[in-house]
């Protein structure tokens, strides 16, 4: 037992070390949800292997009264249920922290740390005594440790029992045995340890009306609200739950109660090439269509993306990024497809990207992407990542303006053609670089055209004339400039005092960055923040960069991909942009960002423009 | 991919169909394929087929991949939207288009390189998925645009123009389509328009995945001695198992007829396929029988043509997906967007 013990109220990190497939996920989720019900913000994160059963998996819960939802780094309280990872897990506990484990089998003293409080409870023994069925012994062990934890962290038992009842609603027979297991764990912990530990969960009011949802589920709900009817996809971690989410939401909202007709078509394609092909066929034909994928899928789709760009066909792609290159780390997070998506396909191409920071924006951008794709007649990428996509996250409740209408963009109708509208498929009539299109079958004699990936003139006729080619690809640049005004504008977080130092970030880096900026502010270091939310970059981004002398571009990939995009597209002096990258597959932390920026800003640092990486 | 505009003038007494369209209204721009190319005959057959069926040309969507064959949608049905996609990927684009609007007729045109090599997977999955489309493969056994390499449908042992002998087994797309669940499978020959036109008509009217493998000799690179896709070879080895007439409504479209027993198939849309049997032992309703018959005749060196299999009660992807009868692309805000109140309920369920 250590002399110094961590003590904190509603501000610590709990981590569960489990075995994949042991049924721990629902017990761990119950723990996280209990915190929220007690009004205490928390951010859980699954850290899992590319495996179905047997390999180590972790569930980390950041408890934060202040509402910091980024990964913090470090562990205050380790719930160690997996001998395979014991040594590493024990080593990761903060000095003064706590270790809870199954003490059924005695472990040598060398397996413990002097500066960590050890809390052993014979979980296997307890469950073997209470249950006969081996499966029950395993499953209830999870609930038993939640019970023990609730005692140790001074949590409200009633809240958890209410949640158990909600969780098993419809399978009511399971409620009583689970509550019983929970109480057993709580009682045994009280008998064994006597009193709770120094980490305390106290009821609060910091959750408010916030909702708790995975980004993939939120994005797929956005697709429903965005009017998507065709989804063609191929299973790939970590995007699979997005297509599955779309299926679930469509079943809820898009099935005609009277006829059973389904106002959607979801096809699990044979591969990513077919997925994007189907999306383009459907969108060409006037339906809103999307695919969900991850980096390897983007590589496979690249040929079609060039066609969509050049032939100007709308498409929405949800890219739930994972660590690359190649197969990389399929179950680890990164922001590593920024360049691959921005310039996907051969030839000169530029695409539209949106960077949501959380499920709220995943929903918002998920819906908006379809309007943008139709308006701009080009692929639009919603750049999620595993951290946002596959973890439940606390966020603002979704909003929908009842007066909002789907924007189908420039579409020529049969009436317009009848009334003498001069249709040229690639004719820019109003100077925004966007031409009108017709849907197939619109009119018996007018408005048909031939869509092709080969060079074409303003009337969609094949041409190898250099001037006609230049005319068409320069118009695409003009269209891209229009896109700049339509993508979500950046958000700024100003430092307490005017400063020439800034930090530019995007996507899932947001919560850690916000916390880091607050930490820097407390230290008296003045750093302005800018969160980019779309590409092509809005004019405000360039103006903001020009107002600052030194900018840390904080991102989760090795090469500083957004920084490259900023220098290439905005003509920024690269020396001004300091790349600050974190790319080991774990989510970026406020501790890392704070540490790295603090170090860079120390007056003694003679070489402030070096690259900083973790 | 024409550089020359086609003159719009035509003879004032050119016959019209019931819709008031002349054949010229079903044509496309001037072909840039080689003179005598089999593919142009197929384009002409498509023009005749749709004209006779009295389908408004804009109710058809024509899609293709890349290659000589895939250029042809530009050469027929000018008032129809066309989509020249990427190599081997026509099936997925057609699938998506069909998902968006089931009210149009989908005509996919591909070649042997496009469908049997790079697009073999997409071809297979469109068939097994049951995409309601007429899928025509203009099969010449050779890569023409890149000047004469063997394609995957070239027969083993056949000789290229440069004298090279093909050592690889040829893929028979008809056999593939039969085993993958296509519900209308036929083989034609670009040199036999009487046989081909009704085969195309039946496929366009068929409400399920229809595959037509059309042997279409390449005059530039595969019309020599030693080739098994030359005009002479195909004429000499063509064994038609039946001749087809397509009857829509009350009007029979009469084509050159030959004697034989008659088998009538009524399709879902009311059209009747009248099969004049030439091989008395051939049954176009027996999928497994067709597979073994074709294999047997292939061993004997014959190219079997005709309507090889038809399921009069086909199903398609939309039936499995339970989509509405009207195209998904017609749905508006009211049918698609659940609205603010529903979202408030979603929010409440996430707390």
Q: What oligomerization state is this entry in?
A: heterodimer
Number of helices of chain A: 19
Report the largest inter-chain contact.
Answer: A-B, 71 and 62 residues
Question: Sheet with the most strands of chain B?
Answer: 8 strands, mixed
| Strands of chain B, total number | 14
**Helix and strand succession of chain B?**
HEHEHEHHEEEHEHEHEEEEEHEHHH
Q: Write the CATH fold name of the largest domain in chain A.
A: Pyruvate-ferredoxin Oxidoreductase, domain 3
CATH superfamily (homologous) name of chain B: Thiamin diphosphate (ThDP)-binding fold, Pyr/PP domains
What is the class of chain B in the CATH system?
Alpha Beta
* Computed Rg of chain B: 21 Å
- The low-confidence runs of chain A, each spanning 5 or more residues with pLDDT under 50, are none
> How far is the N terminus from the C terminus of chain A?
33 Å
| Overall body shape of chain B | globular
Strand order of the largest sheet of chain B: 2-1-3-4-8-7-14-9
CATH topology category name of chain B? Rossmann fold
In terms of DSSP E residues, the strand content of chain A is: 15-25%
- The average pLDDT score of chain A comes to 96
Net shape of chain A: globular
What would you report as the Rg of chain A, rounded to the nearest angstrom? Answer: 27 Å
What this model shows, in words?
The complex is a heterodimer of chains A (614) and B (351). With 614 residues, chain A is α/β, with parallel strands linked by helices. Chain A is 37% helix and 19% strand. Chain A has four domains: 8-200, Pyruvate-ferredoxin oxidoreductase, PFOR, domain III (Pyruvate-ferredoxin Oxidoreductase, domain 3, 3-Layer(aba) Sandwich), CATH 3.40.920; 213-395, Thiamin diphosphate (ThDP)-binding fold, Pyr/PP domains (Rossmann fold, 3-Layer(aba) Sandwich), CATH 3.40.50; 414-486, no CATH class; 491-613, Rossmann fold. A seven-stranded mixed β-sheet of chain A has the order 11-10-12-13-15-14-21, sandwiched between helices. The radius of gyration of chain A is 27 Å and the shape is globular. Chain B is of the alpha/beta class. Chain B has one domain: Rossmann fold, CATH 3.40.50.970. Chain B has helices spanning 38-53, 68-71, 90-100, 112-118, 120-129, 173-180, 193-205, 231-237, 287-299, 317-321, 333-336, 340-349; strands spanning 60-64, 82-84, 105-111, 133-139, 142-143, 149-150, 184-189, 209-215, 238-240, 242-248, 251-252, 261-266, 272-277, 303-310. In chain B, a hairpin with a 2-residue loop joins β10 (242-248) and β11. In chain B, α3 runs parallel beside α5 and α4 (112-118) crosses α5. The radius of gyration of chain B is 21 Å and the shape is globular. Classes of the chains: A alpha/beta (614), B alpha/beta (351). The interface between A and B is large, with 71 and 62 residues. β17 (450-452) of chain A pairs parallel with β2 (82-84) of chain B, so a sheet runs across the interface.
